[in-house]
Amino acid sequence: MIRDYTDAEARAALPLKWGHVPEGTIPAWVAEMDYAPAPAVAAAVQAGVAKGMLGYPPFGDHPVVTGLEEAFRGFAQRHWSWAVPEGTSTVTADVITGLRLVLETLCPPGPVVIPLPCYPPFRTVVALAGREAAYVGLDPDSPEATLDLAAVERHFEDGARTLLLCSPHNPTGRVWTRAELEAVRDLAAAHDARVVVDEIHAPLVLPGAEFVPYLTLDPSAVLVTSHSKSFNTPGLKCAQVVTLDPGDTERFRAIPFEANHGHTTLGMLAGAAAWRDSDLWLHTLRNRLDVLREDLAELLAAHLPRARMRPLEATYLAWLDLRAYDVADPAAAGLAHGVMVAPGHDYHPGLEGHVRLNMATSAARLEQVVTRLAAALG
Ligand SMILES: Cc1ncc(COP(=O)(O)O)c(C=O)c1O
After folding, report:
1. Sorting pLDDT into bands at 50, 70 and 90, what band is 140?
2. I need a labelling partner for 54 at 20 to 30 A (CA). Which of 3, 47, 152, 328 fits?
């Protein structure tokens, strides 16, 4: 059920990921999967095109919008036993836009705490929102890779009032435990701070880990999410901001159309089909990723034995500590040997010797990714 693209298909389908590398180089950088879309998602988009649904998306409440929210509520109930109240989702273009608008509209003044390493746009959106970033270490190379809550607290004491949390975490692949999230909630409550949580990777929690939706613990938090990462549809532009406080929902929905208009009707149709009609495909995808993470561990043991990788609990994005090879920028070295992975310093400025490797490809390509990286590191 998960159909691998051939190289030619991938090059046509994924112009950012594959178009960015010379022919012959394998791209394992940006978070897109080398797989054909879920059949229900493809069918929903094709049906939308057949009906000519290429116009502007609707303002506010409308069956197309409602369909997306209802579908998300159903998904949250089935997968996480979370009964998301009705009328709490607002559509936005994508998670990056949603995060910026939430910071601008719903977050108290003051610096924004960001655990490092982080998904690089976190740093950019905080700057775009006119906020200062307050970084805390999250030691991705320690076995636990836990949040440094004492450092978060110090920033709260110094005036920060917002924490931007990625759950599950990109790039470490960690799934925060209930206890960790409760500790975050208690700390935020003690300092009257707000947590903004990006759960775009939540559908990709792999067997063995349990995902806890943060809003089930802290209803004052704001969730920004999308089906787009798990269902490979980021180009269709559709994400959701979930606010449990009716005042927050009202304030977010009062954002002028001109500032929040990047979503598309086709994206909403795809989102509804993803959340509502694609459980089996998603299940199959997670099984595939479960096998691939084992493959990756074996390939590393065979070809890059000094690489360190935490067991991946979620996502298809593996964080590799390659410092033992003594190459400051292993991603640049890899590029010279026909593989493009993402440099670790993009996620943690100044951090050398790490890469993020996207394993959502065929087993054969994954093997080439690792062997080429091994050749690059000597
Ligand atoms: C944690 C995280 N948030 C957001 C995004 C981007 O989401 P969008 O394309 O909806 O802005 C990504 C993409 O990889 C991501 O990993």
Report:
1. confident
2. 3
